[in-house]
């Protein structure tokens, strides 16, 4: 069965607070504009604050007929999804289920021709069984979109090691790992176990449901 093409940006969660900063807002808006231009009709879904920001930044001139803007908390009409050839999910919603629901509707029933862009490293796979996601960092996404890559790591706002670890954790979760050792994470991210230990506290703070236990990590559902 044909499966949707899914690309996920993994260099940040892009919460409501971070999306409100000027540098992050410009970076993500740049990606969103480039993605919209690749499709015929695109649904952009994000927090209420960021959607309003898109209007303020004049996202839509010349693109009005190519997109619809929607909030995570809006009701999702499954039949309406058939109108789109692309869906962009921007940032981590305040209630993570709202993001799961948006993706879930695309797959049940399946609409395999819809391309999905997920602009947050928030893990998406444990509840909906997606296992064929292309994970990219900011520079890789810029290359896909034929944009000039960001050379300044400070603009991305993350240490390169954090980017590798976040990407590796998302990959492990999508492959069904509820628990994994520090060494397993280090091998997946291609960093040293010492690097994992340095960033353990930050990883557990930034990634939903991730907790550190002796010798590794566990995804915990409340």
The biggest beta sheet is recorded as: 6 strands, parallel
What is the alpha-carbon Rg in Å? 17 Å
What's the total helix number?
A: 9
Helicity, in percent? 40-55%
Which stretches are low in confidence, meaning pLDDT under 50 for 5 or more residues running?
A: 150-158
User: Looking across the biggest beta sheet, what order are the strands in?
Assistant: 3-2-4-5-1-6
- Average pLDDT across residues? 77
Q: Return the CATH class of the largest domain.
A: Alpha Beta
Characteristic key phrases:
globular; single chain; 222 residues; three-stranded antiparallel beta sheet; Arc Repressor Mutant, subunit A; 9 helices; alpha/beta; six-stranded parallel beta sheet; Rossmann fold; 40% helix
Structure report:
The protein is of the alpha/beta class. It has 2 domains: 6-156, Rossmann fold (3-Layer(aba) Sandwich), CATH 3.40.50; 160-219, Arc Repressor Mutant, subunit A. 40% of the residues lie in helices and 18% in strands. The chain is built from 9 helices and 9 strands. The chain is globular and about 50 Å long.
